[in-house]
Amino acid sequence: MNNTYKSAGVDKEEGYKTVDKIKKAVAETHNPSVLNSLGSFGAFYEIGGYKNPVLVSGTDGVGTKLKVALDTKQYGSIGIDCFAMCANDILCHGAKPLFFLDYLACGKLDSDIAAEIVLGMVKACKDNQCALIGGETAEMPGMYQPGDYDVAGFCVGIVEKDEIIDGSKIQKGDKIIALPSSGFHSNGFSLVRKVFTDFNETFDGKPLHETLLIPTRLYYQPIHKLLKEVSLHGIAHITGGGLIENVPRIIPEGLCASISTGEIRIPNIMLELEKRGNISRMEMYGTFNMGVGMTVVVSEADTEKVLNLLDDAYLIGEITENSEKIALV
């Protein structure tokens, strides 16, 4: 019997089925700037209408949250997570997402599962007015076990050079406003899985995995609503490392983000994790978002306007003078 690629564990036909299942939905994310369709060697995106454009890019994955999805066979939110982790990062600089590419690797490709993951990306791209213009599906027997998947993505956005947000405008007296998270998002799941070992146990009246797999919140709509009305001095996406590691990334030397922990609205699932896992509160703040998915820093004069524009935003602190860039009080 002659050896074939299929006998080595790679089924090209399943890959073609995947493309067929996603092609129409992916095309719906395209706009006139997308100059070609799925299947080309490279994807083309035309830029116009900017005076001095700067491209802002970000890449990320979903981490071990994937394990929860794979073990419970719930794949719908994973693509949203992948897109959100990339797009929310570039949003911190005021960038509008232009296009997104994905990378999906597995041990044995199942076109239904792959399509479900990519269709989650499509949904997220539409929400962010972003085009999904390409990707790669890699079937890698021997590297991954059958049933295992890994997902990563790459997003490119654009912003006028004189409108870049980098924290340099932050000054003493500015206020720090929280935009709530939708849950754990896609960070800290190695610890989550160590504490919560039964994803089907009941929590808050439903299977635990439903709470754990709530997709990462997309912040494009609220942030761009603010950008039209107020000057944002700084934006921080609260990912791995929590508030403790992410907020200082935008704070200038000599200033400090003084955050009132008593104001933070911690989700029940995180309080349960903390209690059941015997995890210190400081460890929690250094690992999880604790219910704060994004923070914006604005002048005191603009604070009330921001709170009025966004129904769920709330004040958690202010900028003070200090050699340490963050203080949880």
TrEMBL record:
Pathway(s): Purine metabolism; IMP biosynthesis via de novo pathway; 5-amino-1-(5-phospho-D-ribosyl)imidazole from N(2)-formyl-N(1)-(5-phospho-D-ribosyl)glycinamide: step 2/2
InterPro entries: PurM-like_C_dom, PurM-like_C_sf, PurM-like_N, PurM-like_N_sf, PurM_cligase
Gene3D superfamilies tied to this protein: PurM-like C-terminal domain, PurM-like, N-terminal domain
Gene: purM
Subcellular location as annotated: Cytoplasm
Species for this entry: Bergeyella cardium
Keywords, in A-Z order: ATP-binding, Cytoplasm, Ligase, Nucleotide-binding, Purine biosynthesis
Protein name: Phosphoribosylformylglycinamidine cyclo-ligase
NCBIfam families assigned: purM
